[in-house]
Amino acid sequence: MNFKKDFPIFNNNKDLIYFDSTASSQKPSFVIDWLKNYLENDYSNIHRWAYSLSERSEHLYESSKKKVANFIWAKSWREIIYTLNSTYASNLLVLSLKRSKFFEKWDKILLSIVEHHANVVPWLILKEEIWIEIEYIKIKEDFSLDFEDLENKLDSKVKAISITHVSNVTWEIFDLERVWNLLKQKYLEENKPYFIVDASQSIPHFEVNIEKIRCDFMFFTWHKIMADSWIWILWWKESILKDLKPWISWGWAISWVKKECFLEAWLPDRFEPWTQNLSWAVTLLKAFEYIENIWWYNKIEEIEKKLVEYFLEKLEILNSKIENKIKLIWWKNVNTRVWVFSFVIEWIHSLDIADYLAENNICIRAWLHCAEPFLWELWLKHTCRASLYIYNDKEEIDRFLDILEKAIKYLS
Fold this sequence. Notes:
Distance between the termini: 39 Å
Number of helices: 14
CATH topology of the largest domain: Aspartate Aminotransferase, domain 2
Strand order of the largest sheet: 2-8-7-6-5-3-4
Mean pLDDT: 91
CATH architecture of the largest domain: 3-Layer(aba) Sandwich
Radius of gyration: 22 Å
Number of domains: 2
Order of helices and strands: HEHHEHEHEHEHEHEEHEEHHEEHEEHEH
Strand content: 15-25%
CATH superfamily of the largest domain: Type I PLP-dependent aspartate aminotransferase-like (Major domain)
Number of strands: 15
Low-confidence stretches: none
Helix content: 40-55%
C-alpha cells in the first residue's frame, strides 16, 4: 500500500527523501484538511460554554484526550495533560513533585545513561536546588538495560526512576515490564519509587500499554506521529495526580482567587493553566484516527519490519564495497529495536555527510541528538541518524545508500 500519496509535502517537493521522521514526522492530508475545516467552522476558546462554537471546540478537545487515553490504555481521560513539549512535560513533572515536597536532601534519582537531555537536565536542576543524588544505570554490550546494575542501585534512598522506552541513539527497546517487576520485588507498595517513562520514541512505532508497563508517569510527543508541533502528552495516575501540586498556576487552573490565597481547580485543569492550543488537539485527534484508518499499529509495524530488513541487507552490500566504513550503533536484533539507524563513518564528520545528502534532497539528522552523556560513554562526538516512516519505501533506501556511497568517496 502506497502511503506517500497521503502526504502532500512529497507532491510539493519532488524527489524529496525524508529520513528525519523521528525528529518530526510529516502530516497526512487527513490531518491537514481537518485542521483547516476546524479553523474555518468550529474554532473558539474552550471552557466558555455560553455559545455553540465553544461547546464544539470543547467536545473536540475532550475527544482528543479520550482518544489518547484509549490508545495507551489509561483508565481516564482526566489523567491526560497537554503540555508544550517533552522538555516542558519533564520540567512540569519534576518541579510539581518538588513543590509537593516529595523529595528530601540526599534522595536518589535513577536515570539510564542513554537518556535524552529532556530527561536529564530537569533532574540536574533539582540536584542544584535541593541536593538530590543522581545515578545512571548502565547498558549492556547489546545496548539493553543492565538489570544487574539497576538492581544494585535500588536501595531505600531511591525516590524515582525515570527512563526512556526507546533510546534515541541505539533505538533499542527497553524491557520496562521487567523494570516494574523488579521494583515490585524490591519494595513494599507504600515505599516503591515513582516509575517515570519517556515514551517519545516508542509511541510512533508500536502500541504502548501502560497497564503492562505499570509506570506512574509517562510523557511523549505527537508531532513525531503525524500531529502538529507543540503537542506533548503527560500522563499520570489520577490517584497520584489529585495529591500533586502544580508547578505553575493561573487562568483556568484556578477555582477562585482572593487577596491572600487561592484554590486550585480539579483535574485535569489544575495542570493546564494556559489557553489551550485547540489546533494541536484537533491534529492529535485526527492523527490517531488516521492510524486507525490504516489498520492501526499493525500496519506501521508490518511496513517497518520489511524496510528494516531491506535497509540492513543493502547496507551490508554497500559496506562490503567500501571496507566497512559505515558503523551502525546498534545490536543486530530486529525484534528489539525500531526502524531508525544511527551510524558513524570513519574520519568523516556527521555534519559533512548530512550536508552532502541535503544537497541531493535527502533529509537526515546529524550531531549529538540531545544524548551527549551517552555518546561520550561510547567515545563518540557525533553521529548520523536516518529515520524511516510509513511514507518511505525501498526505492528511497536505494537512492539514499547510493548518494551516501558518493558522499563517502567525495569526503574521504
